[in-house]
Amino acid sequence: MTVQAAEGPAEGVETLTTELTADAACEATTTIDILPAEILYKVLSLLPTNAATANSLASVCTTWRQAILSDALYLHEVRFKLNVNQPFRGLDLEQLIPGWKHAVENFNLSPFHKRFNDRDFPKVLSAAAAAANVTALETLAALKEVQGDGTGSYKHWKKAAVLGSARGQFKIGESFYKGSGTQGVDGEEALFWLTRAVKNPALPPELLATAAGIMGFLHLDGEGTQANNVTAVKWFKVAAEAGNLEATKTLGWLYNTGQY
Q1: Residue 216 to residue 218: CA distance in whole angstroms
Q2: What pLDDT is stored for residue 111 in this prediction?
Q3: Buried b / exposed e across 185-222, counting CB within 10 Å, b at 16+?
Q4: Mind giving me the DSSP string for 20-80?
Q5: Residue 82 in 3-state DSSP?
Q6: Cα 24 vs. chain centroid, distance in angstroms?
Q7: What is the DSSP letter of 120?
Q8: CB-based contacts of 3: which residues, under 8 Å, 6+ apart?
Q9: Do residues 198 and 238 touch, judged by C-beta distance below 8 A?
Q10: How far lies 127's CA from each of 17, 23, 247, in Å?
Q11: Which residues pair with 91 in a beta bridge?
Q12: Helix 187-198 with 166-178: angle, nearest 10 deg
């Protein structure tokens, strides 16, 4: 799997040229593991905090890999983002699975139950997720969907949601509304997580349109809350303004039938 750099080089960090081979570099740094943690973290903090840099450093040698994978502070700051053009090294999924690129861009991977082994995922990604890195959790959750691993996907989306991920909050709320996970349909839980999602300023407009539309139907039908047409119309308006055509049609139907 390849990852897309989310940020450029940090200011004040010069590019150093060396003739040392990777093996020689490892031999020269075999004592990196005895550095105080705060010094190692300071060194890492001067480097770009994107997944491409972290993955490259972890691939140099065993010593460096262990140092990177054991530094929870650094792993927590690394930024992960799926590369829609080449999510997995050497494998063009857009040709194998038409629609993959659009699905990754919108984090809607459930139709693509393509099986991949967990060992195909970079160790840096798994370690960062274990360090409560939200972008790593989002990425891993999306990849678990590709595997068809609903339980694993839900687990990582839930962790991301609890940590404030707008996408995670939306995904968990949607799963409770649709009953797509092992937890089944639960209107109250759906409303709880979708409410958090729509209030999250990081929620993309297209997900806001869907989330607000679902909330409209929950209030209209009295699922997870008391039925309330006024509140339903409020959320249908939010959804319609965000581009949800179904919400627009529902508003028209409510007005035309005198239900509001």
Answers
A1: 5
A2: 46
A3: ebbebbbbbbbbbbebeebeeebbbbbbbbbbbbbbee
A4: --HHHHHHHTTTGGGS-HHHHHHHHHTS--BHHHHHHHHTT-HHHHHHHHT-HHHHHH-B-
A5: strand
A6: 37
A7: G
A8: 50, 51, 52, 55, 80, 81, 82, 83, 122, 125, 139
A9: yes
A10: 29, 24, 41
A11: 88
A12: 160
Q: 97 pLDDT band (50/70/90 cuts)?
A: very low
With beta carbons less than 8 A apart as the criterion, state whether 156 and 136 touch.
Answer: no
Question: What's the rounded Cα separation, in Å, for the pair 145 and 134?
Answer: 17
What does the block give as tokens for 152? 């694993």
Residues 26-65 have pLDDT tens digits of 444 444 555 565 666 677 677 667 777 777 777 667 777 7
Span 56-92, pLDDT tens digits: 777 667 777 777 787 787 788 888 876 544 554 434 4
Two structure tokens written together for 205: 């407009």
Q: CA-to-CA distance for 260 and 253, rounded, in angstroms?
A: 10
